[in-house]
Amino acid sequence: MKKIGFLSFGHWTPSPQSQTRSASEVLLQSIDLAVAAEELGADGAYYRVHHFANQLSSPFPLLAAIGAKTDSIEIGTGVIDMRYENPYYMTEDAGSADLISGGRLQLGISRGSPEQVIEGYKYFGHVPQDGTDHAEMARDHTRTFLDLLEGKGFAEPNPRPMFPNPPGLLRLEPHSAGLRERIWWGAGNRQTAEWAAEQGMNLMSSTLLTEDTGVPFHQLQAEQIERFRKTWADAQHSHEPRVSVSRSIFPIVNETDRAYFGRQTEGQDQVGYIDGGIARFGKSYAGEPDRLIEELAADEAIAAADTVLLTVPNQLGVDYCAHVMESLLTEVAPALGWR
């Protein structure tokens, strides 16, 4: 059994071929897609966060809106770039959105990916300290965020406050108990997966890794997951971790599917470069259900994960993305034992 959700990058473009031609359409359709996914029996609705781009950027208003419109589906991000975040304000936003949803937030965060602009986090008021870099700044923001989510008091109260204070040091409000255990780290390699485990965060691994050892992508990712679980066990955290992997999976069950994805049936891993470093990209899976079942059964990283996030082509619209999810849930997942 696996939890199955979707991951949307929230693209929009004014192209007449796109079903999402504005930010407004993307935001409203993101809510509608979560509602549709819940009705289909999917487990999660996750959204990518990018700044300075025609994509979703500020996640918490969207997550709160989805939380108010749905009842059971997990709502998350994959991922929030912590270089841009004020962890104090983020703690308040996350607590509010989690309470609105009834404790269904699953927040994926990370160091961030290549940007649309040069050092964009500086425009948000964040500059690495002397002797550090932007990656260390992201980890510092993350450590502060995790500490704040514990809900411990740390701020000295005003002796003459506007409203009465409880005794002792004050914490940020609203506090949502349990959210600390629902934070995921988007790890790009084996080392950062181990770091995530040390910090007590769940592991979110996507369709690319910022390293290459020459083995197929799914095997390298499976090793990443194995190292994460071992480090978690060594750290003796009090709760069980979760692991998600993202995949592009397109069951071909009608002619529309074939027109969109029929040419991707011979997908394979690719090796390229990101930010000057080598990276391995996982292949897309497209084909008739019987073929997908056979190929996905051999994916070692999927076997090792408890959650699979289906990357959806959001510019094709809510109805088509819901169709892709329904095809996976009914034509593929049961045969693999995911349902």
From TrEMBL:
Domain Luciferase-like: 8-259
Organism expressing this protein natively: Rhodococcus sovatensis
Taxonomic superkingdom: Bacteria
Protein name: LLM class flavin-dependent oxidoreductase
Keyword Oxidoreductase: yes
Enzyme class at the top of the EC tree: oxidoreductase
Listed EC numbers: 1.-.-.-
A Pfam family assignment: Bac_luciferase
InterPro entries named among the record's database cross-references: Bact_Lucif_Oxidored, Luciferase-like_dom, Luciferase-like_sf
Keyword Oxidoreductase included in the entry's annotation: yes
PANTHER family per UniProt: BLL6902 PROTEIN, LUCIFERASE-LIKE MONOOXYGENASE
Molecular function GO labels: oxidoreductase activity
Swiss-Prot/TrEMBL keywords: Oxidoreductase
SUPFAM superfamilies referenced in this protein's UniProt entry, alphabetically: Bacterial luciferase-like
